[in-house]
Amino acid sequence: MFVLAICQFRPGPNKDDNLSRARAMIDTAATGADMVLLPEMFNCPYQADLFPVFAETWPDGNTLEMLRAAARENGIILAGGSIPERDGDRIYNTCFVFGPDGSFLGRHRKMHLFDVQLEGGVAFRESETLTAGDEVNVVATEKARLGLAICYDMRFPELFRLLALAGAQLVVVPGNFNLVTGPAHWELLARARAVDNQVFVAAACCARDPSAPYTAYGHSLVVDPWGTVLARAGQGEEIIRVALPLDEVVRVRNSLPLLRHRRSDLYAKFFSIMEPGKGNARG
């Protein structure tokens, strides 16, 4: 069994305090776990104008050093949610993954930026300060192959299919859904992506803070390849822990071989004319 723990953490305006509290939560979650997962932008408030203020440059930075040390000292795989990462004059929303010896295993820069104006008054434009990533990332560890995605990425099935085809058994999704999108789509999307690709999906959201300008939904969860929710958090700060039988990926794919039944010959033929604004293949 592969034991995963999710820290549903509530970040505040003070970075040092966030790191201290997150480290304590990681240490608690690490007991009996192979891997710990944090939520999106766990070291700062989810505000576009603050991302440049809290950004760090690889491989330096207080957050990166904390994550590296926490992985090493607890002997765990640590998917450090995501943080604002500065690279030259660009800033990315980036998930860093460290191994049980503190080594850097990989990173994912959020591919799809959250630029929305939702009914109900929720508006956000990540592109005001962030740059979109352009790589599909699967991290090989000694115990599992991890696909990486961040929040809004979960709405794009193409990415998850690429992760599955690249060998991911578990896709980890640091997220920060809000009180409009969360109740409607958070669990639905996690279950859909798991069923579509016959993988485990672990989605970690920030804990709810009603006083924050952007209020996170909470309800972090883990879904198996059949679409069953194995564990689910509430609204507040919480640790959930679940044992994942990773061989379930092979069992489900053998009994329902949808990946083998794909008609990629036809998809390649019709994809270009099925893009929005280009008409219908049968029209």
The average pLDDT value, as a whole number, equals: 94
Number of helices: 7
CATH architecture: 4-Layer Sandwich
- Report, as a whole number of angstroms, the end-to-end distance: 50 Å
- Coarse structural class: alpha/beta
Helicity range of the residues? 25-40%
- SSE run: EHEHHEEEEEEEEHEHEEEEHH
**Major sheet, described briefly?**
7 strands, mixed
- Give the overall shape: globular
- Strand % is 25-35%
Provide the CATH top-level class: Alpha Beta
Kindly provide the radius of gyration, computed on alpha-carbon positions and rounded to a whole number of angstroms: 18 Å
Number of domains: 1
CATH superfamily: Carbon-nitrogen hydrolase
Briefly note the CATH topology name.
Nitrilase/N-carbamoyl-D-aminoacid amidohydrolase
Uncertain segments are 279-283
Number of strands: 15
Per-chain topology:
Layout: E1 2-8, H1 15-29, E2 35-37, H2 51-54, H3 62-74, E3 77-79, E4 83-87, E5 90-98, E6 104-109, E7 115-117, E8 123-125, E9 138-140, E10 145-148, H4 157-165, E11 170-175, H5 181-197, E12 200-205, E13 221-223, E14 229-232, E15 238-244, H6 248-255, H7 264-270
Parallel strand pairs: 1-2, 2-3, 10-11, 11-12
Antiparallel strand pairs: 1-15, 3-5, 4-5, 5-6, 7-8, 9-10, 12-13, 13-14
Helix pairs in contact: 1-3
Describe this structure in words.
With 283 residues, this protein is α/β, with parallel strands linked by helices. It has a single domain (2-256), classed as Carbon-nitrogen hydrolase (Nitrilase/N-carbamoyl-D-aminoacid amidohydrolase, 4-Layer Sandwich), CATH 3.60.110. The protein has seven helices and 15 strands. The protein has helices at residues 15-29, 51-54, 62-74, 157-165, 181-197, 248-255, 264-270; strands at 2-8, 35-37, 77-79, 83-87, 90-98, 104-109, 115-117, 123-125, 138-140, 145-148, 170-175, 200-205, 221-223, 229-232, 238-244. Strands 1, 2, 3, 4, 5, 6 and 15 form a seven-stranded mixed sheet that branches. Strands 9-10-11-12-13-14 form a six-stranded mixed sheet, with helices on one face. The longest helix has 17 residues, at 181-197. The N and C termini lie far apart (50 Å). Mean pLDDT is 94; it is low at 279-283.
